[in-house]
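Changelog-linked ticket: adenosine-5'-triphosphate example.
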Amino acid sequence: MRPLSFNIFHYNIVATKKQVFWLFILSLVYIFLCLWYNFTMRICSVKLTNYRNYQDASVSLDTGITMLSGKNGQGKTNFVESIYFASTTKSPRTSDLSDLVLDGKDGARAEFEVERNFGKVNIQFVISKKGEKQFFINGNQVSKLSEVFGNLVVVYFCPQDLRVVSASPDVRRDFMDTDITQLSGSYYNLLVRYNKILMQRNKLLKFEKDRESLERQIEVWNEQLASTASLIIKTRKGFIEKLKEPTNEAIKFISSFKDELKMEYVGARGTTAQEIKEELLKSLKYNLDRDIELGYTSIGPHRDDIYFELNGKDARNFSSQGQQRSIILALKFAEMQILRDEIGESPVLILDDVFSELDPSRQKKLYEKMSEFQTIITGTNFKFRPESEYKKLNVTLGVIKERKA
Ligand SMILES: Nc1ncnc2c1ncn2[C@@H]1O[C@H](COP(=O)(O)OP(=O)(O)OP(=O)(O)O)[C@@H](O)[C@H]1O
Ligand SMILES: [Mg+2]
């Protein structure tokens, strides 16, 4: 039989028709299995050494639901914070990373074994007393933080998130950026680049007192700022577009079809990066006098927002506390869905101290959804039945123990 010859990525591959046929069949079987078996990402184990109030903790986790209970101030949030940190390289509570080191110790260390559909990934981080962080993926130190993103993907819900609808726009921007970053390390690099350019432009606005010289120099910064900003805005708009439908579906589910949600990105107009860039360049020119007066750049992705409309009214001013809670929960479930579609596996869901405050009928509905993936819930007490369906952990002063039913 005459072999077939292919050129793939400059490699010349020679195979018989029979080999090509079997390769095709195997690929079909793999695709079928992927579709049939809903892959879920799983944290298999967590080891914490001198992290917050954990001196030496080692915990193994299963798929499905894990409930971490304990009295106030025992270490529930500290535990889930370490998982969030391993995923995003950020703490949801502090920017001073020395806070993460156990009092009186030189440094903290944490290690996570994560099961993915392509195999296991080992993530480690070390934080020095000075607050410097280092990450290791499968034992190799990463040179850029963007290499950490995507190894462990989590959707994290904590009491502060309840402010997403009502708080200032920076909270909503942070919400978008954290999620997009988990999907794309290059987005993180874009943000870093944007902030550097923004700082340079602001410096010029503040310190260059000669108007002619300022106008000459600012052209360069406008061009660079608009180029980077247009890519950020285009990505964010795409993210919001994807979120719209599943969020509305989720809110209908949670509210038993009482609520309807619309959301929109508020920022420069345009769909393509080129359109957005042109729009930004116009606005930067138009707002120059104001920017000089203020001493900083008043338009761009660092000022953008998300608009939520619930049942035809601005959710910020009209929705109740309970409705705002439902919007956030819906967003989190929608995030789970779009992250799963994007990476082909369900991310890990973390609910810190928010679940127990829901009324029993909502708890029941959410409980059904949560058992589809790995979920870690913290709270002071849980009353779920049957208890045998989930793993129960208890923490007392930084010591975690498994609780049998
Ligand atoms: N760097 C640190 N070194 C030692 N202890 C710390 C450190 N950081 C925080 N803690 C302690 O950890 C405890 C808080 O833990 P955490 O926030 O996880 O509690 P929690 O179980 O979530 O409580 P709650 O139910 O009130 O939310 C506090 O007692 C705090 O003093
Ligand atoms: Mg807590």
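Closing comment: Example verified and attached. The longest strand covers residues 42-51. The CA atoms of residues 6 and 13 lie 5 Å apart.
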